[in-house]
Amino acid sequence: MTTNFPSKVHITTTINGQQHELLVPGYMSLLDTLRELIGLTGTKEGCLDGNCGACTVNVDGRIVDSCLVLGAEVDGKEVKTVEGMATPEGLHPLQQAFLEEAALQCGICTPGFLVAAKGLLDNEPSPSEGRIRHWLAGNLCRCTGYDKIVRAVQKASS
Amino acid sequence: MVATFETKTDYKVIGKSPIRHDGLDKVTGRAIYGGDVKAPGLIWGEVLRSPHAHARIKRIDTSAAEAMDGVFAVLTHDDFPTVDEREVSTGEDVVNLKRDQANIMADKKVHYKGHVVAAVAAVDRNTAQQAANAIKVEYDVLTPVSNVDDAMGDGAPVILEGLVGDHLGEEVENTNVAKVFRHEFGDVEDAFANSDIVIERTVSMSMIHQGYIEPHNATAIWAQDGNITVWSSTQGSFGVRAQTAGMIGVPESRVKVNYVEIGGGFGGKTKVYLAPVAALLSRKSGGRPVKLVMDRSSVFEATGPAPGGKIRMKIGATNDGKITAADTDIMLESGGYPGSAVGAAAICVFACYNLPSSKITGYDVLVNKPKSAAYRAPGSPQASFAIETVIDEICDAGGFDKIQFRLDNAAHEGTRRGDGVQFIRVGLEECLQAAKDSDHWNSPLGDAPEGKARGRGVASAYWMNGGGVSTCDIMLQDDGTVMLNEGSADIGGTRTSIAMQAAEVLGIPVEDFHPSIPDTDSIGFTGVTGGSRTTYTTGLAAYNAAHKLVDELKNRLADLWETEVENIDFNEGTFTANRDSIGIQELASKLDPTGGPATATASVNLAEAGNAYGVQICDLEVDLATGKTDVIRYTAIQDVGKAVHPQYAEGQIQGGVVQGLGWALNEEYFITDDGAMANRSFLDYRMPTSLDMPMIDTIMVEIANPLHPYGVRGVGEVPICPPLSAAAQAVKEATGKSYYELPVKPGRILEALNGD
Known about the structure:
heterodimer, A: alpha+beta, Ubiquitin-like (UB roll), DNA polymerase, domain 1, 2 domains, B: alpha+beta, Aldehyde Oxidoreductase, domain 4, Aldehyde Oxidoreductase, domain 3, seven-stranded mixed beta sheet, 19 helices, 26% helix, 26% strand, globular
């Protein structure tokens, strides 16, 4: 008889501006930490091997695939997810542009694209089409053919 | 861009592009998809899959898994009830319950690598995975059959024991060919003998996957009272209900399927894989909610990809550019159980052409690969690649303009499709004309940079589009807003395109609608979101419900105004009779004395289909040193009937094109000698990224569909078909070599370039 409950790690982390103190199982990804422990299911699971980008979140200003990061690794770090993009004043310009440009169809990749695109615009307010396409190449969308996503990012950047 | 051929432009709502009603939830992360479902006391399920592509199961030992801490239940095929070969409708296609039950949980034999052999439920996902891995299975490994040639060869191992094939009406045992059928008219042999140009080629293509980003998932509760509740990302809740109830042997009324958002389907989420397993695990776990989410490699290995196969194609033409005859054999891989898209391939293959004689023979062929399912115009892309490749060569041989030749031979109203159906008004000729007139077709390719070569390809395709059954309920609220319930899963903004059709009738702004998709207990039967049918058919249900609501409101007003119903007119949201006049939204607050709120419901069953045609032009550049291709310009022309929501109609076309380009240039299942898929991740199964694609230009042609009040035809599927040949012909023009095997990948291009 083996035990199936690996030891847990005590972490303190800031998620969308709110501090959380958590006991995270050692094997648990940041993706599952957000989804299962915090209840932030806006970050999506697509492949669990870092190839689709649906689980993209921002950790200390850097874009990461949260399926490839352990929850234990964000101890002392600041995590931002799609749920943290809108403010009480309204939607983030990227969210508004995605709605206006019909840049989502099924919407499963949308949170990852939004977080990734915000990571670009935070540092480069006016990227070229080529730069946007290059930056977003780590996020797969199977519905839109990318045309309207790129246009939405262009709209939010101008 | 919209090119309107029938001028009906006085719509208030139709043809505008309002922000979709579910958009806010989807850009803020609030929308609940199947994988996001939580329930009190939720536990996790996991399955064990076969490592072999073809094997007999000798023994399954579940004792170690059962003994593990945190494990609540273990399941094998023995836990499923015996079901007969009854067929149930998913709303679009038909499922054979016994075979599909064996497909989701292997019965004595495994038919493909990844075939589920057992399942567990445990306290969390990690424990469930460990427990599934602790199950021991002994196999008698058999030789896998990996392609149609091997499957149809003499002495091929028989995959589905007991299968009796129907070969042109003859019953055949010990076969992997489930069905051979034929559509034929005229005398093709005589016509070929009298043709100036005859070209015959055989093309082939690999199995490919829909590639939706959201993996399959299901959560189920089998409560102590025998009622079963299911949440599962699906294109059709009623299909999940029918398949789940059928496979676990309970009446459909015992199963309630809750609607959850779906992260892409493209046909692949019409069939059920996990919900019956979750339900049985829940029952064995004392009614606990059980959730399963598939991992990505299992999505590739064990869901429903699009069939690969082989198509022989022979076309004859005269020197003055008229097609005389067409003859084809279409052999498609159904996968581990019968039922490929070959029937639809046969319907579509010659549907762009007005043929004096044709012969179409279809073969449904079992191989040791996952059971194929629908993928966006199922069967038509493969068929389009075959015919358009040969048409292109006919044009080259005869010196014909590639669009004019298609125009001279185009199907139109009255033309008989290869399967005999006579077309109603269709828009292929207008699409071809729009292509011929387009800026793209009339612009030069431009010079390629050093070391590269450019080419242009053009191709057309057809998809019939679906009709079927849909239901819509409308409830006018006191404040003049409208609650609208409809049964179609929303994968791309159809809540809005359906509500818009009711809004147009009622003269109420679509922003005042609250469209919802209720559970299967709370709306009338509605077929799957598939077959490009949702805006077309469920939209018609909404249109009819809105008209019923107007009739009801006239009855109420007749009481209030003390007049006869016939005296009341309704126009653009205002009722008038004699000197009385009232807006519909104002009337909404005055209904209580007339008998309470006004509601209306409508169901429709459209037997006939919308008929979609697309013509596409592809410019691409080939790196002559590496074989890498870059699409540099792309235009998709399509008869949409009427674009209800032009932005989302265009989005469907652009998305379909890019999926088709992935199919044409990159995507394939690499099958090893052991019958395994070698590239079962998004890293190795290389779908197009944003970096690979240019903007996709569209020209939406609007030839009203006579079967729909706004002329809607449906848009979703046909755009995936033309890219296969359009891209291949562009590579042909760039390299001077022909390509008969998909994908036209860099290695294949280099082989062709270096071959002589």
